[in-house]
Amino acid sequence: MSSTQTLNQSNPPVRTVASTQSEMTEIILPNDTNILGSLLGGRLMHFIDLTGAMAAYRHSRTHVVTAAMDHIDFIRPVHLGDLLTLKSSVNRAFSTSMEVGVKVWAENTRTAAVAHVASAYLVFVAIDQQGRRQQVPQLLPETPNELRRYEDALRRREHREAESARRKEAHIVTTAQEVAADIKP
Ligand SMILES: CC(C)(COP(=O)(O)OP(=O)(O)OC[C@H]1O[C@@H](n2cnc3c(N)ncnc32)[C@H](O)[C@@H]1OP(=O)(O)O)[C@@H](O)C(=O)NCCC(=O)NCCS
Hints:
Blueprint: E1 14-16, E2 22-27, H1 41-60, E3 63-74, E4 83-93, E5 97-107, E6 114-127, E7 138-140, H2 144-182
Parallel strand pairs: 1-7
Antiparallel strand pairs: 2-4, 3-6, 4-5, 5-6
Bound molecules: coenzyme A.
Coenzyme A binds at residues 1, 65-68, 94-97, 123, 125, 133, 160.
């Protein structure tokens, strides 16, 4: 991909976390569930991806692609007929990427009981119509919770980069070993 990076002209240099907050509610229907009537994990990941993208769109005001969904906790099952509410906001903006946090709750429509069922972190990258990466506005954390998430997001990015470097190194070593094994004396 081209390394061209321009700041979208309609973007201010800084946006608040509040301006990125997004929410989606779904009713869980038979098509969303397994044969035991529990929400499929892949379907939940789809809802998480969509809600995360909403926050990234609101921050970047450009097209975005999902670069990573690197941490997801499925805390408890969601059942047929439950109301699923997903909330997202940008935790931190970097150069062309944004880390978004998504939290998910399920509501039993008969008892009104609400439970936290999942949380995830995703990274979105801003691109233009031609797929060129776009610089995004910086994010301004305003509350103690927003500041905590902002700082944690940097730690997660460092961890992601270290893990990616480790995987690349392991791949190089494995490939070199495979090549050596193929060269028979
Ligand atoms: C994500 C993508 C745009 C990155 O493009 P790239 O040319 O490899 O970009 P770079 O490696 O130079 O990184 C660009 C930015 O993305 C971030 N990034 C790239 N890969 C990442 C990953 N796996 N996890 C987290 N961040 C990532 C980089 O940290 C960098 O962020 P910064 O500009 O804020 O510092 C590209 O890999 C892509 O198009 N992937 C497919 C996306 C897609 O189709 N998603 C839907 C899948 S179902």
